[in-house]
Each structure stands twice: as C-alpha cells, then as structure tokens.
C-alpha cells in the first residue's frame, strides 16, 4: 500500500504560492540550492505516481526534458530521470493534452479513486500543489507532509495548509540546510 505525500516549498509565513502580482517567488529554495535539491530527489526517488493540478503540472513538465539541457548538473539529470519514470495524473477541466510520457488527465478529483490507487500501489504517491492538496487533505487522504521552509516572508498567497482544517500531526524528521532552508516531515496521527 502506498502512502500519499504532500510536499511543497513554502515561505517562512506558510505560503506555498505567492499572491497574484508577486513575482518575487518564495525565496531561496530547492531550485537554487544543490544540497536541498539533492535531498528532495533522494527523499522522493521512489515515488510511483504524482498527482497534479494543471498549474503544478505545467511547472513540473520541465523535468520531461531537463536531463537533456547542456551542462546539466548530475543532481538535476537524476531528478529528471526519476520524475520521468513515475506515473503522472493531472486533474484538470481545461488541459487538452499532456506534454510528458506516462501521464493521463482526470477531469475531476475523486477521493475514492485516490484511495483505490493508494491501496493497490507498491510505491508512494504525491499530491502536489496547494489547491489539489487541499482536496486530498479535506478527504483525509494525506499520510505525510514535507515542508521545505525558505527564509522569506511573502505576506500572502495560497497557504500550504488549507483554511478550516484541523490536523493532528507527529514530527517525524527535521533538517536544516546551510542556505537556511528548513525541512520538516510530519505524519498524520
């Protein structure tokens, strides 16, 4: 049986996506820090299925060809190949076609279908993006949470955890990186 994992880079004040018009991003994070990026790659290497919303998929599809970039660092090439090996399910009512192999579109998020997928999977699954993750959290599907907290306060946007949901979590692991990024792994009790 696979576990459903929710993981995002977040600002220090808990936002996984900045407010519209804020082009400054979430601050220094995995995309800038080889140590953090390598850790993320190792942590999620064995994921069998990624669950995405359209916007997160459009961000992540970069990994379909990242290994072929000129002078690509080894940790980037490895993450790209691991991402390519996994199944991807994009939950979208507007996406017409996908730009990556091993990818299918689902028009709605069906909690029962995700439960069945978890029950029959030999590998963990991730739900990526705070909007889709909010649906999975509200349905009681998420088993593990990985926050990669940057040193930047952004003041608004979409929070990592959805409003109106109470969770009782157990801290499983924590790690700090030289860049100031903090990783916290929590598990649902």
TrEMBL record:
It comes from the Bacteria. One of its GO terms (biological process) is riboflavin biosynthetic process. Residues 4-181 form the Bacterial bifunctional deaminase-reductase C-terminal domain. Transmembrane segments: none annotated. It holds the Pfam family RibD_C. One of its GO terms (molecular function) is 5-amino-6-(5-phosphoribosylamino)uracil reductase activity. InterPro entries: DHFR-like_dom_sf, RibDG_C, Riboflavin_Biosynth_HTPR. This is Dihydrofolate reductase. It comes from Nocardioides scoriae.
């Amino acid at each position: 049986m696979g576990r459903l994992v929710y993981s995002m880079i977040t600002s220090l004040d808990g936002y996984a996506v900045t407010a519209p018009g804020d082009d400054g991003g979430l601050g220094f994070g995995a995309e800038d820090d080889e140590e953090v990026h390598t850790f993320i790659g190792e942590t999620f290497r064995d994921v069998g299925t990624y669950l995405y919303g359209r916007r997160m998929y459009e961000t992540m599809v970069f990994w379909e060809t990242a290994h072929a970039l000129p002078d690509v660092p080894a940790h980037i090439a490895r993450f790209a190949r691991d991402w390519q090996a996994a199944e991807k399910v994009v939950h979208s009512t507007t996406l017409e076609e996908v730009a990556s192999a091993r990818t299918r579109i689902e028009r709605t998020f069906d909690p029962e279908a995700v439960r069945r997928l978890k029950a029959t999977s030999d590998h963990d699954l991730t739900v990526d993006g705070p909007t889709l993750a909010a649906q999975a959290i509200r349905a009681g599907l998420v088993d593990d949470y990985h926050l990669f907290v940057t040193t930047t306060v952004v003041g608004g946007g979409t929070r990592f955890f959805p409003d109106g949901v109470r969770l009782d979590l157990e801290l499983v692991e924590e790690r700090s990186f030289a860049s100031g990024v903090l990783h916290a792994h929590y598990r649902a009790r």
